[in-house]
Design a protein that fits this description.
Mean pLDDT of chain B: 94
Distance between the termini of chain A: 59 Å
Radius of gyration of chain A: 22 Å
Distance between the termini of chain B: 69 Å
Number of strands of chain A: 13
Shape of chain B: elongated
Number of helices of chain A: 8
Number of helices of chain B: 9
CATH architecture of chain A: 3-Layer(aba) Sandwich
Largest sheet of chain A: 9 strands, mixed
Strand order of the largest sheet of chain B: 9-8-7-10-6-1-4-5-11
CATH architecture of the largest domain in chain B: 3-Layer(aba) Sandwich
Shape of chain A: globular
Number of strands of chain B: 17
Strand order of the largest sheet of chain A: 9-8-7-10-6-1-4-5-11
CATH class of the largest domain in chain B: Alpha Beta
Strand content of chain B: 25-35%
Structural class of chain B: alpha/beta
Oligomer: heterodimer
CATH superfamily of chain A: HUPs
Number of domains of chain B: 2
Largest sheet of chain B: 9 strands, mixed
Number of domains of chain A: 1
Chain lengths: 262, 328
């Protein structure tokens, strides 16, 4: 099976305190720790496990800039066979539809049986997979937490409310958005990354993909951010101050008062 | 504003989802004079009953009934809506597991803009719908402009826009089923599998020591268990802990896990995503322990401790044991 995984490089929110820049029009991006968007990494692992059973290749692609090459290299070290950087100045400022448009053209230039995305990105909202599927007229399933090969089809389950799993049969080619926890992504060490350090990663621009600049980027975007701000949501928590010991004493009193400690 | 506004009504087992009233409130924030239309899709007697209920709130209800639509398969519903919804309309859908299955593709097929996971609506200014979204796990928010000149599909985060009391009305239900025609899909629903029962039932516990990504590694789980034991509590967790297979799914609090209603919820190393908080009901006393002062959990907690949970939990466990000795 030929599988494409669409991945993104995002600031890692578990490693960073996100601050606003002084102009308030973006987050402060200097000194941020970036990594592959977590659900995308699960999607790559899932793709690797599928080709281990069915044969075929895993290609990882991202729409971005030269800086984003590092996540492609990481996923190559993880075991992906091919990578593609979809980069062009014309893509800058694209909204989700613009990014999905670039990916659509890349899919059309190749032949994939299965396209995977992560369920959502740190700064996104579960958009690309469903848009891409509709553009390609492929069937789509979101929030997928298991995939089984079933002949020329797949049996997939979606995570729905209350821990329930909705099981469906889906024809290939299709697009699936992958939920975290579907598998245990393998570890990628520095040594693995060094081994792929010199692998040439092909880059494709607007003309390679047959994209008119007006279809993507800022001009085509219907969604634009006006500013960033830190929400003021109520009064927030009363922060207990002091040493851990002092705080523990205060906390025990509070919890006793609430009837939580007998 | 001239665009027609629709709200997609999610329902299950004959009950209208809470999101219906929230979407109605969201339409009013877009345009106070809006006359929003409810889209009710389903089959048989159930869809009739849902239409009747919804007609008490929405000034117009469009019914789309077909036996093929008995189970809410977003792939089929999308096709049906494309045939029914007029050009240039604004369609609101809840941002839940169903909405994210339906909405992105729907926006493409309607050639409309798509803005997802909206937490606030500021109104409409010319061709722009102005909304608020959150990014980076809720650490920052952003004002977003969405060009609605060719329509829009908007997913609204459940619980984010508060439903208002509305006077009961009795609106007309229009049957649009004939427009739908034959629906086919390449994705067929087979069955729903219920989660496996766990060793403990966290939904019944009055005190939960809940751990998140901050626990760091599996070997640290006993630190939380020790604290829980001292407090007479059990350990629950947020999604990353289950994803890492450190605790079973039955311990997960959140929209895709369990809904809990403890008296005290000690959230350690949990950032406080809306999916996690959606599983917390009954106004518990929330204590947040997190080293990131910006973590959204501090916005909803009653008290907060900004520290390393791995150092704090053993200290607290020790103090709890001491306090118990004194009382005995």
């Amino acid at each position: 099976m030929e599988i494409l995984v669409c991945a993104r490089r995002v600031p890692d929110t578990s490693e960073n305190e996100i601050q606003l820049n002084s102009a308030g029009n973006d987050i402060e991006r200097d000194d941020l720790v970036y990594s592959i968007n977590e659900p995308d990494n699960y999607a790559v692992e899932e793709a690797l496990q599928i080709v281990a059973k069915s044969g075929g290749n895993v290609t990882v692609a991202t729409v971005g800039t030269d800086d984003d090459e590092e996540i492609l290299r990481r996923e190559l070290a993880m075991g992906a066979n091919k990578a593609a950087l979809l980069a062009d100045d014309a893509f800058a400022g694209s909204d989700a539809k613009g990014i999905a448009t670039v990916l659509k053209r890349f899919v059309e230039k190749n032949k994939f049986d299965l396209v995977l995305t992560g369920v959502q990105a740190e700064d996104g909202g579960a958009q690309i997979g469903g848009m891409l599927a509709a553009m390609l007229d492929y069937p789509f399933a979101s929030v997928v937490n298991s995939i089984e090969l079933a002949g020329d089809k797949l049996k997939v389950s979606r995570e729905i409310e209350g821990g329930n799993r909705e099981v469906s049969e889906i024809e290939l080619p299709c697009v699936l958005s992958i939920q975290t926890g579907i598998n245990e992504p393998r570890y990628v060490g520095m040594r693995g990354i060094r081994q792929v350090a010199s692998v040439e990663i092909p880059a494709y621009g607007a003309s390679d993909l047959g994209i008119h600049p007006g279809e993507v980027g800022t001009t085509a975007a219907k969604i634009k951010r006006d500013d960033y701000f830190v929400p003021a949501l109520g009064k927030g928590a009363e922060i207990l101050e002091g040493s851990n010991e002092e705080i523990a004493d205060k906390l025990i009193e509070l919890m006793k008062a609430k009837g939580g400690l007998q | 504003m001239t665009a027609r506004i629709f709200a997609y009504i999610v329902h299950k087992a004959g009950v209208v989802d809470d999101s219906a009233a929230e979407l109605f409130a969201a339409t009013k924030k877009m345009d106070a004079s809006a006359s929003p239309t409810a889209l009710v899709v389903g089959a048989g007697a159930e869809v009739e009953a849902i239409c009747k209920t919804v007609a008490a709130t929405f000034p117009e209800v469009w019914k789309v009934a077909s036996d093929t639509l008995a189970y809410p398969n977003a792939e089929l519903i999308r096709q049906a809506l494309v045939k029914v919804v007029p050009q240039g309309a604004i369609v609101l859908v809840p941002h839940n597991h169903f909405g994210i299955d339906l909405a992105p593709g729907l926006s493409i097929k309607l050639n409309a803009a798509y803005v997802s996971d909206v937490v606030g609506v500021a109104g409409v200014d010319g061709v722009n719908l102005k909304v608020v979204r959150q990014e980076f796990g809720g650490q920052v928010s952003t004002h977003v402009r969405c060009d609605i000149s060719s329509g829009a599909v908007v997913t609204v985060r459940p619980g984010a826009v508060k439903a208002n009391e509305t006077a009961a009305i009795a609106s007309a239900v229009l049957d649009k089923s004939a427009q739908v025609g034959v629906l086919t899909t390449k994705r067929r629903y087979l069955t729903t599998i219920a989660p496996e029962a766990g060793d403990v039932d966290i939904t019944k516990e009055p005190v939960l020591v809940s751990i998140g990504r901050g626990i760091g590694e599996k070997d640290n789980i006993p630190i939380a268990e020790e604290l829980a034991e001292a407090m007479g509590a059990v350990v629950s967790c947020s999604r990353p802990v289950v994803d890492a297979k450190w605790l079973p799914k039955s311990r997960q609090v959140g929209s895709s896990g369990q809904t809990v209603k403890p008296k005290i919820y000690l959230a350690c190393g949990i950032s406080g995503s809306f999916q996690h908080l959606a599983g917390l009901k009954g106004s518990p006393f929330i204590v947040a322990v997190n080293k990131n002062r910006k973590a959204p959990i501090f916005q909803v907690a009653d008290v907060g401790v900004v520290t390393d949970m791995l150092e704090f939990m053993p200290e607290l466990a020790e103090k709890v044991r001491e306090a118990k000795k004194v009382t005995v």
